[in-house]
Amino acid sequence: MSRSGFHPDAPNAVLYGDNIDALRRMPDECVSLIYIDPPFNTGRSQRRQNLKTVRNEVGTRTGFKGQQYQNIKGDLFSYDDAFADYWEFLAPRLEHAWRILRDDGSLYLHLDYREAHYAKVLLDALFGRDNFLNEIIWAYDYGARAKNKWPTKHDNILVYVKDKTKYHFSNEDVDREPYMAPGLVTAEKAAKGKLPTDVWWHTIVSPTGKEKTGYPTQKPEGILRRIVQASSRPGTWVMDFFAGSGTTGAVCAALGRRYLLIDSHEDAIEIMRTRLEGGNLLLGEPKFFTVDDVSSLLDLPSNEEVTRDLGPNA
Ligand SMILES: C[S@@+](CC[C@H](N)C(=O)[O-])C[C@H]1O[C@@H](n2cnc3c(N)ncnc32)[C@H](O)[C@@H]1O
Predict the structure, then answer these.
(1) Which Gene3D superfamilies match (predicted)?
(2) I want to staple 161 with a disulfide (CB 3.0 to 4.6 A). Which of 12, 20, 142, 167 is the partner?
(3) How many domains would you assign to the chain?
(4) Domain that holds residue 34
(5) What is the distance in A from the centroid of ligand 1 to the CA of 290?
(6) Does pTM surpass 0.85?
(7) pLDDT in tens, the chain (314 residues)
(8) Does residue 238 fall inside a structural domain?
(9) Residue 119 falls within a domain, yes or no?
(10) Which of 35, 212, 263 to mutate for ligand 1's pocket (most ligand atoms within 8 Å of CB)?
(11) Which CATH number is 68's domain given?
(12) How far is the CA of 34 from the centre of ligand 1 (A)?
């Protein structure tokens, strides 16, 4: 199979349609960073299938942790119905995410407390436990407060790298944050700010702020900025295949990264059109396609070859 990636002249792109149709057509190791923020409930309408007995001999590939991954997936899927529905939707997309990441690349999977622990087990098996980098806690403080338990005010972002010996990470390039107790450090240190840890305090997108697009699940640019700054180099390809309002694209445009965004909702595409047009100096304005057109962006030998390599469930 070809190791080639995007055509050197490929534009920043926004694709309309089901992301699986684009992912299946993408070659191995062609993007440097993937951030995804999947919707919680999408999988519930998917077809239920017992994967407990799946043996994916054709589909296992070097580094994929083949049989172990299939076994763990089968065990988790048989544990809980709602979980299985959701993960039958998400797991094949994560398998493709692993496949299309370059060997210095990273995946950021944005979830919440309901799914994060299952995702950790599954991604440990898919990427290899050694390639787990962090669980980032994004803490915010907004909205109603439960009276019968600790109010839940955080999201979980799991970070995996394709290869722990080769991945790119530079927190020196990340915007620093103020010290909580600036009086305890020197004035020079206080002025410089501190390196962020794995707990990120950040407000949600303000309902009245200029960042707001009106898209209900929009994430703050400040969160994406940190991710893109730390885990990608300028000029490399960043992908978000649950793109929503296009936060990843807006941040990439500002930071000089190339982007490929996908969403299956027409409203998201229209919001991205408004938000991203005119915003990028690196490759010009994004082009809009459907997922079926993804091959035209890629230097790709044959779509069929990529699909066959991953086996029947991907
Ligand atoms: C939680 S939102 C992402 C929000 C985004 N991070 C932002 O900042 O605006 C999830 C998005 O995934 C999209 N989506 C759901 N299923 C999809 C699929 N199969 N293919 C592509 N997009 C999908 C939804 O339309 C929705 O816009």
Answers:
(1) Vaccinia Virus protein VP39
(2) 167
(3) 1
(4) 13-310
(5) 15
(6) yes
(7) 333 456 666 789 999 999 999 999 998 999 999 999 998 754 444 343 433 333 333 333 444 566 778 888 877 776 666 667 788 889 999 999 999 999 999 999 999 988 898 899 999 999 999 999 999 999 998 888 989 999 999 999 999 999 999 999 998 889 899 998 999 999 999 999 999 999 999 999 988 888 999 999 999 999 999 999 999 999 999 999 999 999 999 999 999 999 999 999 999 999 999 999 876 556 668 889 999 888 777 654 433 433 334 344 44
(8) yes
(9) yes
(10) 263
(11) 3.40.50.150
(12) 14
